Amino acid sequence: MIRHSVILKLKKTISEAEKQAFFEAVDTLADIPDVQKFEVLNQISPKNRFEYGISMEFDSQIQYDVYSNHSVHVDFIQNFWIPNVEDFLEIDYTHFI
Amino acid sequence: MIRHSVILKLKKTISEAEKQAFFEAVDTLADIPDVQKFEVLNQISPKNRFEYGISMEFDSQIQYDVYSNHSVHVDFIQNFWIPNVEDFLEIDYTHFI
Question: Does domain A2-93 correspond to CATH entry 2.60.40.10?
Answer without folding.
Answer: no
